[in-house]
Design a protein that fits this description.
Length: about 280
């Protein structure tokens, strides 16, 4: 992120500077070395800051951007060559995209092997389940689908998430434990509990995220606190191989994945699982 980069007039979070060098320090604390940059919502569809950061990593990361209907086929092809592997819809800090754009854009990116990332509160998923099932791409739900904590199972959106998982094309991102669990920080016991439940249900459909640089938080949590979801790991094996870092969501597979797993643009070339952000 870059405090001098133009942000949306209706941005829900404040702009700030978070440099590649600062991120590398944070990634070292987590023990990660490869990754996927995600376009922050406050920049809308102006992906310049994300693309600039992508170029700084010399092929060690991929990226997710935000687009609308004005993106041309030439744009998509060019972005694919630079390492873009998906598009994001933020319907919590909404503004740049709408759900009506999702299916037409998903149809266009499907041939590139890209996926859709969605940030939406769980109770809102109910109104879009048919749409999400109709997508020709894989789907990643940010921040555990924003299920209410601590009593997550009564949330109607929880049942939608389970049905989506059962279809086999959806991944859940274990990230930002503070979004629904600030009261139990820094250990985030309630977030860890839902992580454990998801491990039991579908361990191979989970990814871990750091949510760095924590733009929603007044005080940035330490790397060890953000990684509270790691406590949800189903086994005691701590020899984790971290192939992917996602700036704003660090992806940490449970099992080693080939270094080119994102080369095809798919969410995973193998099972993306959670050691448990």
């Amino acid at each position: 992120m870059d405090a001098s980069f133009p942000s949306l007039a209706n941005a829900h979070v404040s702009n700030r500077t978070a440099t590649v060098e600062q991120y590398r320090v944070f990634a070292d604390q987590l023990g990660t070395s490869r990754g996927v940059i995600v376009q922050p919502s406050l920049y809308g569809t102006n992906n310049g800051c994300t693309l600039k950061a992508l170029s700084r990593f010399e092929g060690r990361v991929r990226a997710i951007i935000v687009i609308d209907e004005t993106a041309s086929s030439l744009d998509l092809a060019r972005w694919n060559e630079t390492g873009i592997r998906g598009i994001r819809f933020n319907q919590v800090q909404a503004g740049a995209t709408t759900m009506s754009m999702m299916k037409p854009l998903a149809d266009r990116i499907a041939e590139l092997g890209w996926h859709v990332q969605l940030h939406m509160r769980a109770h809102d998923l109910m109104g879009f389940e048919d749409l999400l099932n109709s997508l020709p791409t894989d789907l990643v739900l940010d921040h555990v689908g924003r299920v209410k904590l601590p009593q997550f199972e009564p949330d109607p959106g929880w049942r939608v998430i389970l049905r989506l998982l059962n279809k086999g094309r959806t991944w859940i991102k274990l990230s930002g434990p503070y979004h629904e669990d600030r009261a139990s920080g820094p250990g985030y016991a309630n977030a860890v509990a839902i992580g454990r439940r998801l491990v039991e249900i579908s361990e191979d459909r989970l990814v871990f995220g750091s949510d760095w640089p924590h733009v929603t938080e007044t005080a940035a949590p330490a790397a060890k606190d953000v990684s509270a979801y790691l406590m949800a790991r189903a086994t005691t094996d701590t020899r984790l191989r971290c192939w992917y870092i996602e700036i704003a969501w660090v992806l940490v597979p449970l099992a080693p994945l080939p270094r080119d797993a994102w080369k095809t643009g798919a969410v995973a070339a193998g099972a993306l699982a959670m050691p448990a952000t």
